[in-house]
Write a structure and sequence with these properties.
- The chain is mostly helical and 299 residues long.
- 84% of the residues lie in helices and 0% in strands.
- It is built from twelve helices and no strands.
- Helix 3 packs across helix 7, helix 7 runs antiparallel to helix 8 and helix 9 runs antiparallel to helix 10.
- The chain binds protoporphyrin IX containing FE.
Length: 299
């Protein structure tokens, strides 16, 4: 963690900034209740707020703490004690498993709220511009320290592991990266083969080797598989960038393959039994797809 002196230098924080904030501390007192109501309305935007703030007593406690933080933003001396308080807030958020994104996003709400009230109360002037500058710096410093706790917690966990564990973690990461790269390359190659296959089917239709009706349906099925493969590819790229892997895409590829088969044999009435079995498989895959979709949407 940076010291308060370093932080002040990095953010160009001066005595003037502290005075600017203190000069409008009456505004914090006047609006603290309105602020906390707005803040909590804003928190309802996050779909799992109730996961972190499940009970009324926790909410009430949090409301009081956030109100205290809001007022001290304007009244506090920006010293090492203040820095420790901010760091503790960050640590509490880490302990409850709150994603740092939520803190970052809600700080944007706080910024907009304060700017709105300052402009409403003071109007536009040179002094207002200076006050707003100081507020922006104070909020950036707050966010910096709070979010740093998340990074330092991650780092602490990593450093707490032994030498061999770290060696293992590093190598598993490399192997997993290699697997991901291999999967992306394979999917890209499958896509290229599919394009060649679709062009070949076009050629068969044009040269008359394949009847138009059968050829058209076969091409449609192959395009469907190409589409599913491309979805799988973009899902894998999202996964490499750190996103979760969606299982439903795999089921989607299986569905595309079965639908293609159904399209092709739908022109042969004698294959009625096969068609029936494939329809049952499609329905089962559809149900699995829907179930995974529901679970993933809930998450
Ligand atoms: C600008 C954003 C935020 C500020 C300034 C803030 C401030 C605080 C403060 C001052 C505490 C008390 C820390 C302590 O004394 O140890 C706290 C705790 C907590 N915060 Fe936040 N918070 C913010 C955003 C959020 C968000 C977005 C959530 C959840 C959606 C959240 C959930 C919690 C929880 C669950 C606790 C622990 C409550 C308890 O058990 O007492 N906070 N926060």
């Amino acid at each position: 963690m940076e010291s308060i002196e370093q932080l002040k230098i990095h953010y160009n924080w001066t005595e003037k900034d502290e005075k600017n904030l203190q000069s409008i501390s009456w505004l914090a007192e006047k609006y603290k209740e309105d602020f906390i109501d707005g803040f909590y309305r804003y928190l309802e935007n996050f779909k799992d707020t109730s996961k972190y703030l499940p009970h009324e007593d926790i909410r009430l406690r949090h409301k009081e703490k956030v109100k205290g933080w809001f007022v001290s933003l304007f009244t506090s001396k920006y010293d090492s004690q203040y820095l420790r308080r901010l760091y503790r807030i960050g640590e509490t958020h880490v302990k409850v498993g709150l994603p740092p994104h939520y803190v970052q996003a809600s700080m944007n709400f706080v910024r907009e709220y304060i700017i709105d009230k300052v402009l409403k109360e003071l109007g536009y002037s040179e002094q207002t511009r200076k006050v707003l500058n100081s507020i922006n710096k104070a909020l950036d410093m707050n966010l910096d320290v709070m979010v740093n706790s998340f990074r330092e917690e991650e780092l602490r966990l990593y450093l707490a592991s032994g030498r061999y564990q770290r060696f293992l973690i590093e190598n598993i990461r490399r192997i997993s990266w290699f697997f991901d790269a291999f999967i992306v390359l394979t999917l890209a190659l499958v896509g290229v083969f599919l394009i060649i296959w679709i062009s070949y089917e076009f050629w068969l239709v044009i040269s008359g080797a394949l009847p138009l009706e059968r050829g058209g349906l076969s091409i449609l099925g192959s395009v469907l598989i190409l589409y599913a493969t491309s979805e799988l590819l973009s899902e894998e790229i999202k996964h490499i960038r750190g996103g979760p892997l969606s299982l439903k895409i795999f089921v989607g590829v299986a569905l595309a393959a079965i639908i293609r088969k159904i399209l092709v044999i739908s022109l042969s009435p004698e294959k009625f039994q096969e068609l029936l079995i494939l329809s049952l498989v499609t329905i089962s895959l559809g149900v699995v797809f829907w179930l995974i979709y529901r679970v993933e949407a809930k998450e």
